[in-house]
Fold each of these.
Amino acid sequence: MSGVMCDLAIIGGGLSGGLIALAARRMQPERRILLIEAAPALGGAHLWSFVDSDVGEAEKALLQPLVNYGWREYSVVFPQYKRALPFPFYSLRSDRFDEALREAMPAESILTGRRATGVSADGVVLEDGTMIAAHGVIDARGPADLSLLDLHYRKFVGYELTLDGPHSVRRATLIDAAADPAEGFQYMMMLPIETDRLFIEDVRYEAWPDIDMTDHGNRIVNHAARFGWRIRSSARGQAGILPIALGGAFDDYWNSGGVGVAKAGLRAGLFHPVTGNSLADAARTALLVAGAQDWSGAALHKLLHDHAARAWAQRDYYRRFARHMLRGLPVAEGYMMLESLYRMDADLIARFHGMRLGLADRMALSLGEGPMPLKAMLGR
Ligand SMILES: Cc1cc2nc3c(=O)[nH]c(=O)nc-3n(C[C@H](O)[C@H](O)[C@H](O)COP(=O)(O)OP(=O)(O)OC[C@H]3O[C@@H](n4cnc5c(N)ncnc54)[C@H](O)[C@@H]3O)c2cc1C
């Protein structure tokens, strides 16, 4: 294969690239799309989760066929406080993501096991020398130069565990910080899958990006023991080190991923500054591209640069929140900011997750027992 032509070439068949391909195929089936992924499968090895209220109706329609598991509500548990929040919570596995993309797209539109070595606004060169000429290219190969940002990290290791007997967990537990608060900013996430099967993930926020798999594994075993569960087997492990952006100049980061080339996903800086999550952003970006008529390299660059730059600017409040939580407080107290956040009005919490806080919300978060001191909000 050499000298391939297409309307849109998407480099990176991970979360963001895959969703763009799916949405673009649905909305403009007559145009030729190529999704180029270095790994043998699309989506890597992930269990991606999101809260229903993070996304709008159109994004939900895009994500719905990919969902493996859903819960009617989720809970948070802190040493002094626990609560159920009335928002559905969903998870999708990357094997379903791969399957759904292959069902939706013509076989010749997906190139897996093919690494891009050269990317420009309207062309791609693959490792085997194949040249692809595209009306426009989107680079979704994961992070650009993260060293240009002021970062903290959210690190986690999770396993799907089969237990010796049934557990009694019914809701998705987004945060369980009830045990060992003195050990630092860490908590567990728990997702019940079957009566004797659940996914447990050990999460911690730290200033350095290394991950200690053994330590995370031991904490998961201890967590199960706390509930009196005996683990029969474990499967589908995943580990992640997500960037938490405390600051940085957007344009330097954008350009570090390739000057003049349209970008999506982590490469575009589109992730939640407090959680590092990017699924809702990836779905929004996918619909933005799929709805655009002009897929030329220059038009896509402008569309996605302006979208990402606007999002970056609007998220300054969240970077301040993360800065105060992770640097302004002693390490073992950071999670208390989350504890007081989760005592607020449920709809306000949903707007926090979905990055839709208004001025009144921000004031509410800074008054009384709210999590964000006024000084930190104003950046003093
Ligand atoms: C284990 C894990 C779990 C996560 N869970 C959640 C979650 O629950 N909710 C949430 O919102 N966020 C979650 N995140 C954060 C974020 O959503 C993911 O990191 C997401 O996958 C980022 O999407 P992306 O498209 O930018 O990058 P990726 O999904 O990493 O996709 C980049 C793709 O580009 C490919 N690639 C790289 N170089 C080349 C090349 N030269 N040529 C061709 N292909 C190339 C890679 O193989 C990869 O498939 C999680 C992250 C991890 C690591």
Amino acid sequence: MTAEVEMSRMSWTEYAHAIDSRDPAILIPVGSIEQHGPHLPLATDCLIPEAIARAAAHRAGALVAPTLTYGSKSVPRCGGGQHFCGTTSLDASTLIAQIKDIVRELARHNVSKVAFVVGHMENQWFVTEACDLALRELKMLGMRQPKLMNVGYWEFLSKHTIDKVFGDSFPDWSLEHAGIMETSIMLHCHPELVKMDRLEDHAPAALPKFDLWPYDESLVPASGVLNTAKGADAANGKIFYDEYVQSLAGALSEAFGDSR
Ligand SMILES: [Zn+2]
């Protein structure tokens, strides 16, 4: 039987024992409910970091706390924007407040290492802000400050893999929204949720290099996909996934030392 890594499936006594006896890192996926084209589910940015965090937790002796399901607002240049039906976002202050509260609670549990595994690009700086505010508050309360890691899982992809899978057609991470990488990983981890017959084939979105509000919705492809996912497949998904899992496990020991 493999050890349980999901905090929400453990009893409080099992969880407390794990914290006291081996001081595991707690991984928290931070996702979004956001359109990902007609072919991927709204929770794509939750499902991918969740799968990676669980597998990395098994390797690194860490635990995974429940996912922060709602994320910060979708920005046209990397998520398609807020105008799509289904995209359900938080004000940044709400996301920051949630993260801050969770860090304070984990600190109260005597957790000493927390890693936020971000699945939605727009969340990243707000996680950074929340980590800073949480540590400041803990310091003022005289509580022990855990180490906090903030990482977007896509950062772990090596140039070697990018070249191997994309050749010279890698668009840019921001345009990879609902594109080849996310679609391939979903085909590997959750094939039942991917509708490949609904894939649209179009050129990468031609979005300006600046943000402007109110934004021009007509610049965003109507499908919500910023670059076609044609060419996505489960085999490439496994390559991405394996690299992310291995790299996240490695980053945890690099940042926190060995959790076992
Ligand atoms: Zn996404």
